[in-house]
Amino acid sequence: MGTIIDAEQARKLSLFRPLGYQRNSCGYCHSENGSASYYASSVSVRPAHYEELVNRGWRRSGPLYYKQNPQRSCCPHYSIRLEASDFKPRKDQRKAINRWNKFVLGPEYIRRAAYLCPKTREEKKRRKCNFDLFDAVHEAEYSNVKRPIDPKTKKLLEPAHRFEVNIEGDSISQAKFELFLKYQTTIHKEDVSKWQTKDFKRFLCSGMKRSPPNAQSQEKKLGSWHQCYRLDGKLIAVAVLDLMPNGLSSVYILSYDPDYEQWEFGKLSALREIALTSEGGYQYYYMGYYIHTCQKMRYKGSFRPQYLLDPESHAWDPLDSELSKKLDERPYVSLSRDRKLAHLDAPESAGNNPVDADAEINDEEVSLFDLHMPGVLTLEQVKALDLDHWLLVVQGTFVHMIDLVGWEGMTMNDPQSVKGIVAELAAALGPEVYKESAVVLFD
Ligand SMILES: [Zn+2]
Prior knowledge:
The chain has 443 residues and is of the alpha+beta class. It has a domain at 164-288: Gcn5-related N-acetyltransferase (GNAT) (Aminopeptidase). The chain has 15 helices and 17 strands. The protein has an 8-stranded mixed sheet with strand order 8-9-10-11-12-5-13-14, with helices on both faces. It has a 7-stranded mixed sheet with strand order 3-4-2-1-17-15-16. A two-stranded antiparallel ribbon has the order 6-7. The two termini are 19 Å apart. Residues 348-354 have low confidence and may be disordered. Zinc ion binds next to loops. Residues 26, 28-29, 31, 34, 74-75 line the site of zinc ion. This is arginyltransferase. Its EC number is 2.3.2.8.
């Protein structure tokens, strides 16, 4: 058998290992097996493909990629994003940045600087009347702080603290690991012995291809990156970011130093990331999942205007009072489904209605197709794809599915067969990523 694709084509593919549909304990309401998701793993996903997946409700944690079934989960996850150019910071958000800047510069610096390098009247007026997110985010960074010679001391006027923020590759360092341990043990009250360097690495440092190779390059950054915050040379926070062609996704809000909790780093990092979204030439800022029932997640809705992904149509709907009200009334909301149902004369005419969300079935044993999981392709749609010629990686070489012994005798809606497993993966990935990916199964 000759090679069916060349090295150049192979490089453009994302690889996925299907792990299937599983129920797990819920991290929010702590129900034992309340959350159901479809899982796949990969250490080789292209950022453009990940963006396509994110826009279909997927998310990743290190090399684990998953898409929740919000219809059969206790705490439905809705993907949430905003358009950076439309973002309007609220008063408490503006205050958080100003408060941090004041702390970094310090009262002595602010007093002397006002005297040594006074702002013009226009500048004062402009700053008073409108808050500029970009100015505010960068104001206290050491490289932007004016340091005139103070005639009193004959020395450079220095701010109270040296604050620096840099984008770096997602590699691991001792300082990052120590910060992570401190965070897990202090905030999450976890036992230090639970975590080893390799766990940390799996959690924060792998899963997506990164480019360009060095952070100083002017080329648009894609893939997995770390935004590192240092105060007086000490690493105080690391924000893990997934950069995609049109969007910036905040992976792990922050591994912040608990000593700095009072500064609301969650808020500060989100504001900085929204600014970076615009400055880096991306369009959307993704804050991961929004869980309406989880009080801790509600803050995401305060970055406005915000949008939620419709789990069925994959349209982005404004998270306004109307949508909030619906989410108050019932956990699973798809506005496109609501509109469809409103057009039907009687609810009975819904005919082949999806499996009732509350139906007493063991959904781990049912095919995704029989489950009618929202936002995945139907059996008919997958049949229209050419699964026979989907690529499979076997011991480092590519073959077609049809080359597998017994392939033709298998059925797509048998979740136990290889064809069933592969068909579910295609359904969950969607037609675009399907076309540019390959499956890892036996390696
Ligand atoms: Zn739950």
